[in-house]
Every structure is written in structure tokens, then in C-alpha cells.
Write a structure and sequence with these properties.
125 residues, mainly alpha, 5 helices, globular
Amino acid sequence: MIFTRVRSGLSKHPLYRGPVGTWALTFLVGGIVEEVWRALSLIAMQDSGFSTIFAIAATSVSFVFANLSGIPSRIPGTAIEGLWEFMLGTVLAGLFLESKTVVVPYLAGLLFNTANLYLVRHVAR
């Protein structure tokens, strides 16, 4: 069950606007770009001597700002959405480091974004 406070904010969420197909294409293509960027960033930071925790945190913070700055933004800019995106970025970074492939975090991110799109589009009605 979605709380009333959360449900009322969904109609203002960026994913509520625009065609579903555009968002799906954004998730499919954008996810590839995001995961390649994340992989290269994590590897480069580790090779430069940064700790794994720092590399994960830095890429996760960058991930939040990238999702905020998109046109249209993929998140509304609330603190809780930023925290969720940071946690998602942390999980995706961990999945890459553990699996050593971009496929695993790509599929996880695609699943998360698709579920989030469904939640926003169908629960907000």
C-alpha cells in the first residue's frame, strides 16, 4: 500500500510526464551509457589509488547529480529521492565490482527504472 503523502507526490514526478516509450528508450540506451561510465570511473579511481569505498561513493553522488540534471530530470529533486538514487548507485557499483561485468548492473538498473516508471504511472492515477 502506498501512503497518501507519497501517492500525492507521484503526479508531480518527472516520470509521470512524457510518453512511456521515450522513458523506456531513455532507460535502455541511458543505462548502457551509465554503466559503462560507472565501470570506467570505478576502475580508473581504483587504479589511481582511491579506496573502493571512496570510488563507490563518488560515482554514486555523481549518479544522483546526473539524474537531477537531465532534461527532463529523472528524479524530482527531493531529499528522499536523492537518497534512493544514491543507494541505487551504490548497489549498482557494488554489482559491477562483484560481477566484473556491466551486464549485471545494467539489468538491475533497468529493472529498477521500469518498476519505478510503473509505480509512478499506475499508482499516481
